[in-house]
Amino acid sequence: MITYQIENRFGDFLTFDPDRNVKRNPLQFTAEKQLYSKQNQFGVLSRGSGKESSKKIKLDFDIVVNTAAEYYFELNRIASFLTNNFYKPFYLHSIERGVRAKISIASMKENFPEGLETKISLKNSIELDMEDALWEAVDYEIQEKYGLNSGSSISVELTQDTIESAPIIEIVNPNVDPITEFAISIKNGDFTANFIIANNGFTEGRKFTIDCANAIIQLGDTFSNPSLIAGNVFSLYAGTNEITYESPNALPVNLTVKYRKRVIF
User: Fold this and answer.
1) Which pTM value belongs to this model?
2) Beta strand pairing call for 90-94 and 99-109
3) Does 248 sit behind a cis peptide bond, omega within 30 degrees of 0 on the bond before it?
4) What phi, psi does 262 have (nearest 5°)?
5) Angle made by CA atoms 5, 25, 92, in degrees to the nearest 5
6) Helix and strand tally (H, E) in the chain?
C-alpha cells in the first residue's frame, strides 16, 4: 500500500486514526483545450495550451472510536487542518514515491453504516484539488560545477516520464574581479532559450539566484533588479538539457542547478 500524508507549511502532518494509510482513488488526466467549428466545414478544431488544467484527488479514511464526542472531534480535527488559511500551502505527499502535490480541500464527506453514525464511519472521503496539477519531487535534484569557464556547459538529464521542470540556478563569483555581465543559455534538441544579465554588484563571493519556477532573480539575500538585456527564464525537459555559461569578462563561476522532477501521475 502506498502511504499518503498531508502536510502544512510548518511541516506538521495530518494524521488519520487508526493509521496514516489513507487510500487514494484513481486519477484522471484532463487536458486544457477549446473546440470550435470550422466555418462551412465538417468537424472541429482544438486550441489551447495542451497543458493539464485540473485534477482532483479523493482520499478515503476510516474512523473507529468509542463515543460520539470522540467521533465528532476526529471529523472536525481533520476538516479544520485543511480549512485554516494560516497553515497554507498544503501538500499531499506520496511517501514511497517521494513526490508531493500542492493541494486545497474541495469537499469532505462522512460515510457510516446505519445505526453506527457516532461510533464507526468507513470510507469517509476528502476531495482535494491539485492546485499545480502536477506531482513534483519532495527533494531537489542537484547538479554542480565548480570553476565553470566561459563557454563551458553543464548537462542535466531528465527521464522520459518527466514533464517540464523549472530549475533554480545559483551562480557564485569566486573571482577577485566583479562579473559585470553574463549569459545563461539552454539547449535540448530543437529547444533553445537564453537570458543575459548585467549587474555591477556581482562581486567576489556573491551569489546570483535565478529561480525559473517563480521568475525571481536574487543577488545575495536581496531581490535584485539587474538589467535583463534579453531573454527570459526557462524550463528543463525530458532528455539532455545543456546549460551554458558565457561572460565577456571570461571569468569562471561556480554553478549549481537545482530542480524537482515533475510528473503527471
Assistant:
1) 0.80
2) antiparallel
3) no
4) -125, 130
5) 25
6) 1, 24
